[in-house]
């Protein structure tokens, strides 16, 4: 089943943006009468039918508006310092979108490898993953901000900082309370500086371990995301 | 801390294989007296010191032989049909090695996208991940075999088949018993055929869900791997 992303989706006739029009008419060779699924990225799915297969502005008819099943009832946010290799950050964004996440916050810190991020490109990666996994909501991505600004932002829920330190024995899976909103900070390749960890603690972030395994930055971010989702799915 | 993989590691003087010699002498420019960590891929780590920095056959002195911490006390195996894009299978192998896995079995099935696999290349990916995450054990990878042969192999532990079906309500995280050996079958992009699921059930595999999210093959495999590790890590 093909899935298309139409941010302006609504019941009735809708004109597809040029990129999606081209994709379904030129690439997928869809024609009048063809059926597909549509997500608006805001929480709703529709049944779609091709009405006018124009390669630059296809018109589709949307019916059966319904809420997606990907509403887990809590707010899951991961903050991450973009990795040296962009593909690793993009891989995290794809997998987190599949597994389920509400918001990704990018930050720069003392040991950050990257000081700039292509948020538009990152959004495309998440939109593609949203369609592939037939999700109704596109996770929000918040552009780079300095770590000291990030930790001062208000957040209504549990706040953790995943930190590789022998003194940090308590694990996210034991500290996180099922159903609660949660924000997890994932360090850069060089990890957080001691000052950054102290600053985070001052602002209510609880240091936590993600387990014994030594994980890459992007793996740690996916593991944190899946840990929260799994705890909420367990009986 | 640099980590090298020496399958023949032992206490005392050891000659590095050509590839690792080249890597540490030519690429990392290590010289006499430089120190590093060594894994033998069989469960042990060593402290290493460069004795003779020859680019094709470097000699190192190994001391402080110790068991790695990555002995989780149960056997975790994932069987997967290689994905259409090799990089996705390789990504799974890298992440599973970081998170922790004992054996990966490759299989071909009715909807398989690939009928051949470059096991040597896959091993290199896992060896690299083992070094990066300072693991003492290199996961074993078993070359492609037909699905009907795979499900008939004896396995001492819980056996699951992750299957995307609305009738499969029970989740791996609820069915798996902490501490037990486990083998999870992950379907190809086109999922398992009904006949394959029936055959697996006949041979003791329990159908399970990995949650509500619709996951790509390689994501499902990583999620299954992390689910088992997390349940064993939880208090």
What's the topology here?
Two copies of one chain form a homodimer.
Chain A: E1 3-5, E2 12-15, H1 18-27, E3 35-39, E4 44-52, E5 59-67, E6 76-80, H2 86-99, E7 103-108, H3 119-132, E8 140-146, H4 147-150, E9 158-162, H5 172-175, E10 182-186, H6 194-202, E11 206-208, H7 217-233
Parallel strand pairs in A: 1-3, 6-7, 6-10, 7-8, 9-10, 9-11
Antiparallel strand pairs in A: 2-5, 3-4, 4-5
Write a brief structural summary.
Chain A has 235 residues and is of the alpha/beta class. Helices cover 31% and strands 26% of the residues of chain A.
Summary tags:
homodimer, 235 residues, alpha/beta, Ribosomal Protein L25, Chain P, Alpha/beta knot, six-stranded parallel beta sheet, five-stranded mixed beta sheet
Written account of the structure:
- Chain A contains seven helices and eleven strands.
- With 235 residues, chain A is of the alpha/beta class.
- The first copy, chain A, folds into two domains: 3-67, Hypothetical PUA domain-like, domain 1 (Ribosomal Protein L25, Chain P, Beta Barrel); 76-233, SPOUT methyltransferase, trefoil knot domain (Alpha/beta knot, 3-Layer(aba) Sandwich), CATH 3.40.1280.10.
- A six-stranded parallel sheet of chain A has the order 8-7-6-10-9-11, sandwiched between helices. A five-stranded mixed sheet of chain A has the order 1-3-4-5-2.
- In chain A, α2 runs parallel beside α3.
- The longest helix of chain A is centred in the C-terminal third of the chain and has 17 residues, at 217-233.
- The model of chain A has no long low-confidence stretch (mean pLDDT 95).
């Amino acid at each position: 089943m093909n899935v298309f992303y139409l941010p302006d989706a609504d019941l009735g006739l809708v004109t597809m943006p040029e990129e999606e029009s081209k994709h379904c008419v030129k690439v997928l060779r869809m024609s009048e009468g063809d059926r597909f699924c549509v997500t608006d990225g805001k929480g709703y799915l529709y049944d779609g039918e091709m009405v006018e297969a124009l390669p630059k502005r296809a018109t589709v008819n949307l019916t059966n508006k319904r809420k997606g099943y990907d509403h887990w009832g809590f707010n899951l946010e991961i903050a991450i310092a973009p990795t040296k290799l962009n593909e690793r950050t993009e891989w995290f964004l794809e997998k987190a979108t599949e597994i389920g996440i509400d918001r990704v916050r990018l930050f720069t810190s003392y040991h950050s490898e990257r000081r700039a991020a292509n948020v538009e490109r990152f959004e495309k990666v998440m939109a593609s993953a949203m369609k592939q996994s037939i999700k109704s909501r596109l996770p929000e991505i918040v552009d780079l901000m300095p770590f000291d600004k990030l930790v001062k932002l208000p957040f209504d829920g549990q706040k953790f900082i995943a930190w590789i330190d022998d003194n940090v024995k308590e694990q996210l899976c034991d500290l996180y309370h099922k159903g609660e909103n949660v924000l997890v900070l994932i360090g850069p390749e060089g990890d957080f500086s001691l000052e950054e960890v102290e600053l985070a603690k001052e602002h209510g972030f609880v240091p936590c371990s993600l387990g014994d395994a030594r994980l890459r930055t992007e793996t740690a971010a996916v593991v944190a995301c899946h840990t929260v989702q799994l705890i909420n799915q367990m009986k």
